[in-house]
Amino acid sequence: MDLDGNSVPLNLSTAKSVKQKPASPIENGIRSWLGLLPTGVHALVPPEVHKAALGAPKRWVVYTPMVLLPSGSFEQLWWQELAIQIPQHIDSLWQSILAQISKREGKGKLTHLAINAGIPLNKHEDENENVLRTPSGLLMLCGNFGPALDPGLQPTERDLEEAFWVRTKQNGIVQIWAPRYTMFSRGNIKEKSRILDFHSKGKHNRSNTQVGTETAIDLYAGIGYFVFSYVKMGMKRVLGWEINPWSVEGLRRGALANGWTAKVIRPEETLSLENENVVIFVEDNLRASERLLLVEQGAALKISHVNCGLLPSSAASWETALSALSGDGWLHLHENVGVKDIAKRKEEIGEVLHGLLTRKQSRRFLTMDEVDLVKTFAPGVWHCVFDVFITDPVA
């Protein structure tokens, strides 16, 4: 209306158009599924489900050929009731969602769908620590992820061949794992990148590191998170210890996918070094000192990096890490630390390491270097990596 109260026609050319946000592939998948349900089934579908955006996950991650949804997805009561009322139609819902995400991602056909869950610190059946970091909380919605196997038992060759394996690429490095039996930490990418560039700008060359002639050690190798970064950095060789056979197989497959050679050594086997990029011992790293002593009798390893990547604390491996270094070198110690306690923890680590050196009557000395904040582990708690430089005056 004008000032006199007369109506004024709306000038559509000047009206601002409101852009509608396009529906997500998951919403489209739900709507497509609803449209294909038999007429009689619609009466059983709660009204909330017809409002496809309500309660639908907004994010996902593709690990070819799997789609992983965030924790808490589809946990609303109406979804749970629907799964009970029309179970024969639920698989087609997951297939519809996969089809829509495949179309959006353009990475080929995606065949498996799961909901993420945190890695439990303890096994479900008892209070023993989940030392293998088995992803027992993973909720598998669509696709064959492999049989339910006891993670404490050695998988057979057939188990390994028939398992479902996925892959991703970070920093140009392929990583492979079996999601039913092995965890994957996406948030470690920042630390992987830092390791790759550790010697590239000369900042950390106080030890006159000759990367192409030296060895790195990873006492908690996993599927090769940091092992592969050391290889790509240019290290002559990387030795790793890992007790989860599924992780070892993922590491072996990942090494081959990146064009590197890998040798797997089991507890009863001895090692003869050749020209492998990666050597992995399928055993507790408590044997690392013994193994290294035998190896060094026939080879000058020149170990200059030791990675201790266990959370919430890698303290149990620090003495082994110290004894592994050949002359000057770096320790990378992973810890979960409250944000207000990082400086204090750095000082405490220095005191512990100094005590270990003193007890061994070692002439080596240490410098507490950077603390890298990798990612938040919980509110107010950071996954930190404490870099420690060890100097050997007689090396």
UniProtKB/TrEMBL annotation:
Main location group: cytoplasm
An example Gene Ontology molecular-function term: tRNA 4-demethylwyosine alpha-amino-alpha-carboxypropyltransferase activity
InterPro entries (alphabetical): MeTrfase_TRM5/TYW2 (IPR030382), SAM-dependent_MTases_sf (IPR029063), tRNA_wybutosine_synth_prot_2 (IPR026274)
GO biological process: tRNA methylation; wybutosine biosynthetic process
Name of the protein this chain belongs to: tRNA wybutosine-synthesizing protein 2
GO cellular component: cytoplasm
Database matches in SUPFAM superfamilies: S-adenosyl-L-methionine-dependent methyltransferases (SSF53335)
Localization per Swiss-Prot or TrEMBL: Cytoplasm
Ranges for domain SAM-dependent methyltransferase TRM5/TYW2-type: 104-392
Catalytic reactions on record: 4-demethylwyosine(37) in tRNA(Phe) + S-adenosyl-L-methionine = 4-demethyl-7-[(3S)-3-amino-3-carboxypropyl]wyosine(37) in tRNA(Phe) + S-methyl-5'-thioadenosine + H(+)
Family the entry assigns: Belongs to the class I-like SAM-binding methyltransferase superfamily. TRM5/TYW2 family.
